[in-house]
Design brief:
alpha+beta; 3 domains; eight-stranded mixed β-sheet; 17 helices; 10% strand; globular
Length: 486
């Protein structure tokens, strides 16, 4: 079967699943939902309750760790009117009545019932004084993969300041198995969090937002995801690459005409710049209220990572995909079904990497920002960033599609592909684990790290080290450290 026939076959197979995904609530606890509310991880400040009242959170309130409502002294606009009071958090809306809050006068100051998932038929929540307050289902408004909420930057040390593994002789083969197992868990955790986003996103938008977030690194990831939410992928279909650039730059507030500090005439008069400005003025988005400004973006760090270059990159990628990012990647992903050797799987990874590596064209061959050079013709998306996007976005989204398409063979193939994916250039957490566990005599390279092993290290740190759960450490539990007796 040649590639063209295969793409046509997959195009017929690929579809958006009509059924609404119901989350596995056994994996969600109230503390998680409280953190979600506390950090206000929502893609829009203008939300709506389940009875369709407009909700805008001005202040989420003070987190109450004692008896009574979970957040106190919150400020929330409901249908444009300011309400000051408490917010009660639950995983499911039915818990309000299950916990008998409707009989407890302590909850009469509640102005909003915020729940992860609405499983009840009561459009409004009744208080003990018979007043009713709106219920807000947070699941519909989550802005990022929920796995991000587990991030923690505390030092991975025990009470006496030492990790129990530091300096110990390691059983490298067992340790490798521990990290691979943790890496698999982290991958499946990512897919579950993406399934939660599927309650409001189709596959195309899910992948688009994910790639945008991954392009932003730490400094601009949230802003790029926000931009993707302001400009849905479906709005960019059938548009030229320059039209896509113009719309994204314009909504981002990054065109020269939108800058707080005017740029020199030699910049604004450049033919490429004037063409973008003209396309922006002619777009439907130019007539809408401004959504983002230059202040939302970070231009610190290397010019190669500037958000302007990332927007140029996603514009080229969208144009290449001809209206479907899923069909741009899915045919290659499906090759993993028949791949059963490391060599064949690595060839698929290379093919996916080539799909993502974007070379600069036109204005962005010599510019990192409007009027700023310093790129040396470097790629808009290089190999390390492409591999990161494959591991953290493309493969998890494809896996979710395989679940919803009931394709166990594709699920298994994607897990095999993930298992051989190339390691990254490293990050702060991986460097911490390296320093914490490995020694000059037993270096990390002995593991022959893959992306899966690195993801396992990240899971170890976030799920155990950061919370100082040393007694539950998988390294010790699986005897990956040799006994000193002897």
């Amino acid at each position: 079967m040649d590639d063209r026939v295969e793409v046509e076959r997959l195009s017929k197979l690929f579809r958006e699943i009509d059924e609404t995904y119901s989350p596995d609530l056994d994996k969600i606890d109230e503390a998680f939902v409280q953190k979600l509310w506390h950090e206000q991880r929502f893609f829009d400040t203008n939300m709506a309750s389940i009875d369709r009242r407009a909700i805008r959170v001005l202040k989420p309130g003070i987190w109450n760790h004692n008896e009574g409502p979970d957040f106190m002294h919150a400020e929330v606009e409901i249908n444009g009117k300011l309400h000051v009071g408490d917010v009660e958090i639950h995983v499911q809306s039915s818990e309000w009545y299950a916990h008998k809050h409707h009989l407890n006068s302590r909850y009469n100051r509640v102005i909003l019932h915020a729940v992860f998932f609405n499983d009840d038929f009561n459009l409004r929540t009744r208080l003990q004084n018979n007043k009713r307050v709106p219920t807000l289902e947070l699941l519909k408004w989550i802005a990022v993969d929920t796995g991000d909420l587990h991030d923690d930057t505390r030092d991975a040390t025990t009470a006496d300041g030492l990790c129990r593994v530091t300096g110990k002789q390691l059983n490298i083969e067992v340790l490798k198995g521990v990290f691979e197992s943790l890496g698999r868990e982290r991958f499946l955790e990512k897919t579950e969090s993406m399934r939660l986003l599927r309650t409001r996103l189709d596959f195309e938008q899910l992948l688009y937002e994910g790639i945008m977030e991954a392009l932003g690194y730490e400094r601009n990831s949230k802003a790029l995801r926000e931009l993707a939410q302001h400009v849905p992928l479906s709005d960019l279909d059938q548009k030229s690459e320059l039209e896509i650039q113009a719309i994204l730059f314009g909504v981002a507030g990054l065109l020269p005409s939108q800058r707080e500090k005017p740029l020199p005439p030699e910049v604004t008069a450049d033919p490429s710049v004037t063409a973008l400005e003209a396309l922006w003025r002619g777009s439907e988005y130019a007539e809408l209220p401004s959504r983002m400004t230059e202040a939302r973006w970070s231009f610190t760090g290397r010019p190669l990572n500037y958000p302007t270059r990332r927007i140029a990159a996603i514009s080229q990628l969208i144009h290449r995909s001809q209206g479907s990012l899923m069909m741009y990647f899915l045919p290659t992903c499906e090759k993993a079904v028949a791949a059963d050797t490391r060599t064949s799987l690595r060839a698929i990874e290379k093919e996916l990497t080539n799909l993502l590596m974007i070379e600069p064209i036109g204005y962005w061959e010599k510019h990192a920002n409007f009027g700023t050079g310093g790129t040396q013709n470097a790629g808009l998306i290089g190999k390390p960033r492409a591999i990161d996007i494959i591991v953290n976005k493309v493969l998890p989204v494809a896996y979710v599609w395989a679940i919803e398409a009931n394709s166990q063979k594709l699920q298994d193939g994607l897990l095999r592909l993930y298992s051989v994916a190339s390691k990254s250039t490293g990050n702060q957490i991986i460097r911490k684990i390296d320093k914490q566990i490995f020694t000059e005599a037993q270096q990390m390279r002995l593991l022959k790290p893959t992306a899966k092993i690195e993801q396992g290290m990240i899971r170890l740190y976030k799920n155990y080290c950061a919370d100082r759960l040393c007694d539950l450490c998988p390294i010790l539990e699986h005897d990956a450290v040799f006994s000193e007796e002897g």
